[in-house]
Design a protein that fits this description.
This protein is mainly alpha-helical. It is about 50% helix and about 0% strand. The structure holds 1,2,3,4,5,6-hexahydroxy-cyclohexane and fe (ii) ion (FE2) (2 copies).
Length: about 300
């Protein structure tokens, strides 16, 4: 009796194994079809009228006043203090989704292109990446990239140390920053012998890891994601540099880069259209998308509750 039972059992198992193998092959094929390489050309922004975005000269006073304040107050001294404060404590403990919900009440004063809530902007970015069949880690990066704006509810002194484009502090204010070099005329580092000289406190090719970028949501979330997620280096670069338009869009600060930064620049450029041009997409349904993204978050954040 026993051998027959075993045989039956084995046959059953083989059948099941075969089925499982063909399921796995199907899955791989689906993945191949949908999981496009990060750098593969995209149709996503083909029909977007790019002249409609980031028109800072025509922007309203809210945006102009924001940048005047940011450019005046982001000094070397402030940046050293902000980093020290950041490492000193945990501000809150909550899940990624709770953080997205908390952020919902913030309307970003620096942004001329959207008046949607942040959760909607995050879902628009993630969905654009997902629709394009890009890697899952990149979809998640789209979903969380602006979560650093949570800072506003903790230690921030206003919006000027949370949102807006970023630039390097400790070296010359570059003309390719929004509103140009002169917009820094009231910054205490303006005209400073070292902080406003070409390389300032840095040296050629020192690598952007060693460069202090104006403190805000990018820098803050970068540290959190680096320490508490398993996201790849490209994702961390997309987070840290996505607002660094003078660098990834206008070609400034390239003399400070090292080889790693050159690779990361490609990744940041691949990410940028989804952040910027998805702002004109349809408003996503939060409740419908929630289950998909909750699973995705769990994949890369081993601890559900994040220390913010
Ligand atoms: O106004 C926007 C907004 O604050 C974004 O989150 C930031 O990444 C951009 O660089 C900035 O220009
Ligand atoms: Fe951002
Ligand atoms: Fe964004």
């Amino acid at each position: 009796m026993a051998p027959i039972a075993t045989e039956t059992f084995n046959t059953k198992r083989d059948g099941q194994a075969l089925e499982e193998t063909s399921d796995a092959i199907d899955e791989v094929n689906v993945l191949k079809a949908t999981n496009k390489d990060l750098y593969e050309a995209s149709e996503f922004d083909k029909n977007k009228d790019k002249t409609q975005f980031r028109q800072y000269e025509d922007a309203c006073d809210r945006v102009k006043n924001f940048y005047k304040e940011q450019h005046t107050k982001q000094t070397v001294a402030y940046n050293l203090k902000a980093r020290h404060e950041f490492h000193r404590k945990t501000r809150a403990e909550m899940t990624v989704w709770q953080a997205m919900e908390k952020l919902n009440t913030l309307i970003d004063e620096s942004d001329p292109d959207t008046s949607l809530s942040q959760i909607e902007h995050l879902l628009q970015s993630a969905e654009a990446i997902r629709r394009d069949g890009k890697p899952r880690w990149m979809q998640l990066t789209g979903l969380i990239h602006d979560l650093g704006k949570l800072l506003f509810f903790f230690d921030a002194r206003g919006q000027w140390d949370v949102v807006g484009d970023t630039f390097a502090v400790g070296c010359a204010f570059d003309d390719r920053i929004i509103y140009g070099r002169d917009s820094f005329c009231d910054n205490e580092d303006f005209g400073h012998e070292i902080y406003d000289s070409k390389f300032g406190i840095y040296s050629p090719g020192c690598g952007l890891d060693n460069v202090m970028l104006s403190w805000g949501h990018d820098e803050y979330l970068y540290h959190i994601a680096k320490e508490q997620s398993t996201l790849p280096a490209e994702a961390l670069a997309m987070i840290r540099y996505h607002s660094f338009y003078p660098w990834h869009n206008a070609g400034a600060y390239h003399e400070l880069m090292d080889d790693h930064d050159r690779d990361m620049l490609r990744a940041v450029k691949a990410f940028n259209p989804y952040d910027l041009y998805s702002k004109s997409d349809d408003i996503p349904s939060i409740e419908e998308l929630k289950p998909y993204y909750l699973e995705l978050i769990d994949e890369y954040f081993p601890n559900k509750v994040i220390k913010w």
